[in-house]
Design goal:
Layout lengths: L7 H8 L4 H13 L9 H9 L6 H11 L25 H4 L7 H17 L9 H11 L14 H22 L3 H4 L3 H17 L4 H24 L3 H18 L2 H17 L3 H12 L5 H17 L3 H15 L16 H15 L2 H14 L5 H17 L3 H18 L2 H8 L2 H4 L8 H8 L2
Helix pairs in contact: 2-3, 2-4, 6-10, 6-12, 7-14, 8-10, 8-11, 10-11, 11-12, 11-13, 12-13, 13-14, 13-15, 14-15, 15-16, 15-17, 16-17, 17-18, 18-19, 19-20, 19-21, 20-21
């Protein structure tokens, strides 16, 4: 079942430091001050936040008072819940799927706004719905959508801008080609570079060649920043950066890079227990992806989503396709977004898919084989793989080895600052609690206690 999107009321309530029960208490108090009675309790607040129930106009006034906010204007321009801080205007489907000329800048500006609002803690942007993501992916998958060339301005303008773009390219390469452990701490620089690239795109005074260079930079930087947000669990922001990058690849006409960003959005959907959405996004990406390595990675991620859905036959078919495609020679270089992809990744993620299907011993073998082949420079991936290894040991009933693997993953994640890896270890806590006296387990449970 799809995860319910983050609601603006949840954001406003938590920003005020209130539980649902405390908000309900304040709402009832607001009604009592008017000599009226409200029957709101925490279950009603939950329905407002999670089930799309709309409070009546009077209760919206009580909610505003309970949160210390101005009362909403009756029949005003912003209906519930869009008058709440940071909810913004509703994200209409046609705004999401409008892939065309000059759509990159607005999409990236939306991502910057989400980050700024999060930093100020006055706004938490709502999640992008599965419906909107699939509509966007469906529009991208239509081959009629092509990049639009721009007229060439004067040579003098190109010369000046070309020098500036070269400096941005050099800086981006410097900060994106660093080791994983160091890249985790350079996101503010990447954001600043992306902002500069976006500003140059917004000027619309570059020729086709320089515009293409800017779009290439925008897509790369948006992907990097999106992954940083993803690692921090700030999923609404990550999705918006990746959507901005997708718009940029569309204007650039780079189909495989666009497929990569759809794959990132699918990976996020799988991570958030939305395998249906992930599978559909990946199927759309596969419609146009060209390079065999890109197709292989898309098939592998599709297999992970299908395994989570329990579709054994389709999972095995996708795994076979991923393995075959990875060995197909290609004249063109591997797209940069999947240049890291190797047999090690294929083995480990195949093992994870088989683990979801209950093939524990084969899964454990593949995870071990893949982990042994992983290059030492990919330290964050190693931590993720170690958490997978811990899970496979637990499935085999070997808690001591599982605790050792999970502890190593946790130590590494804390050292390099990778919250996503920490979360993977913490998600194993219920399984470790089944072995409270096994060597290493009590210490691990104490460290992962929230």
């Amino acid at each position: 079942m799809d995860e319910t999107p983050w609601h603006p009321l949840t954001a406003a309530r938590e920003a005020a430091g209130l539980s649902r029960e405390q908000l309900a208490d304040r709402v009832r108090a607001a009604a009592a001050r008017r000599g009226l009675r409200s029957g709101v309790d925490k279950s009603r607040v939950r329905k407002w936040e999670l089930h799309g129930v709309r409070p009546d106009d009077q209760h919206q006034v009580y909610i505003a008072e309970a949160l210390g906010l101005p009362a909403p204007v009756p029949d005003g321009p912003l209906p519930w819940p869009y008058w709440l801080p940071g909810a913004g205007l509703p994200l209409l489907p046609d705004e999401i799927v409008a892939l065309g000329p000059a759509t990159t800048v607005p999409a990236l500006r939306e991502a910057f706004k989400a980050t700024m609002d999060h930093t100020r803690r006055r706004i938490v942007v709502s999640a992008v719905s599965s419906t909107a993501l699939l509509a966007l992916a469906g529009a991208w998958a239509q081959p009629s959508h092509t990049a639009t060339a721009q007229p060439e301005p004067s040579d003098a303008t190109n010369l000046v801008d070309g020098d500036e773009i070269s400096r941005l390219e050099q800086a981006a390469a410097l900060f994106t080609n660093r080791a994983t452990e160091n890249r985790m701490r350079t996101v503010t620089v990447l954001e600043a570079l992306l902002q500069s690239v976006t500003d140059l795109l917004d000027e619309r005074r570059h020729g086709p060649r320089d515009t293409a260079r800017l779009h290439t930079l925008a897509a790369k930087l948006a992907s990097e920043v999106g992954w940083h947000r993803f690692d921090l669990g700030r999923h609404a922001e990550a999705a918006r950066y990746w959507i901005g990058g997708l718009h940029s690849t569309h204007e650039l006409g780079d189909i495989d890079a666009g497929a990569g960003l759809l794959s990132d959005l699918a990976y996020q959907a799988s991570w958030r227990s939305r395998p249906h959405t992930a599978a559909e996004l990946l199927r759309r990406a596969l419609k146009r992806a060209r390079h065999p390595a890109a197709q292989s990675l898309l098939q592998l991620r599709l297999a992970r989503a299908l395994a989570a859905l329990g579709d054994r036959k389709s999972t095995l078919r996708a795994l076979t396709a991923a393995e075959n495609l990875l060995s197909v020679p290609a004249a063109d270089p591997v797209p940069s977004w999947c240049s890291w992809y190797s047999n090690a990744d294929l083995a480990v993620d195949s093992g994870q898919a088989l683990l979801d299907l209950g093939d524990t011993r084969r899964a454990h073998q593949l995870i071990r084989e893949g982990q042994a082949e992983l290059p030492s420079a990919r330290i964050k991936t190693y931590g993720v793989f170690q958490s997978y290894q811990a899970r496979s040991y637990l499935e085999l009933g070997e808690p001591e080895q599982a605790a050792a693997a999970a502890t190593e993953a946790l130590d590494l994640a804390l050292r390099i600052g990778a919250p996503r890896c920490v979360q993977l270890v913490r998600e194993l806590t219920p399984r470790f609690e089944e072995f409270p006296t096994a060597e290493g387990v009590p210490e691990l449970l104490a460290r992962t206690a929230v």
